[in-house]
Amino acid sequence: MTLRLRAVILTGFLGFSGAAIAQQSNPLDVIPDKMPFNVPYGAPISLSQAQSAIAAAVAEAEKHGWALDIAVVDSGANLIAFARMDGAQLGSIAVAEHKARASAKYRRPTKAFEEAIQKGDTRVLSIDDAIAARGGIPLIADGKLIGAIGCSGGAGSQDEVACNAGVATIAK
User: Fold this and answer.
1) How far is CA 25 from CA 20, 29, 71, 97, 116, in A?
2) Per-residue pLDDT tens over the stretch 24-59
């Protein structure tokens, strides 16, 4: 009798938990009212602006003793300026460029891709040329995307701090 009672309780429990799982909605089915990251593309960043952004990122990195690679691309994701700090790892050259390009192409910080992966949204892995690592940030002037900056060589949080210093030169 006890064994039958246990079986009935277990069957009921499994039935309820299965129904609860089946009732959960897929967050990907939510339709936003507005387009996310809908910043219009603007005219390409100038060389002098790109160099100022890099100089600010280098200064921030030097302040902390970080050796980084820093890339700035224009609104079309084309390389405008690049700096490799003394001692920066060679593998990070391409990563800094990749972060900048992905940020410009998709009009969002690369941290958005990283956060999506952390939340279990693996669709990001299928997006062409995305990179799920922070350290790529759009450069916005007068409400328009004029380029992006990418930093690599440190921890993602270090890369992001240096990028933000470069972003601040454009936001003025």
Assistant:
1) 10, 8, 41, 38, 18
2) 776 667 887 888 888 999 999 999 999 999 999 999
What CATH number is associated with residue 149?
Answer: 3.30.450.150
Spatial distance between the Cα atoms of 115 and 113, rounded to a whole number of angstroms: 5
* pLDDT (tens digit per residue) in 96-125: 999 999 999 999 999 999 999 999 999 989
Asked if residue 42 is part of any domain, the answer here is no
Domain assignment of residue 66, given as a range? 47-171
Sign of CA dihedral 31, 34, 36, 41: positive
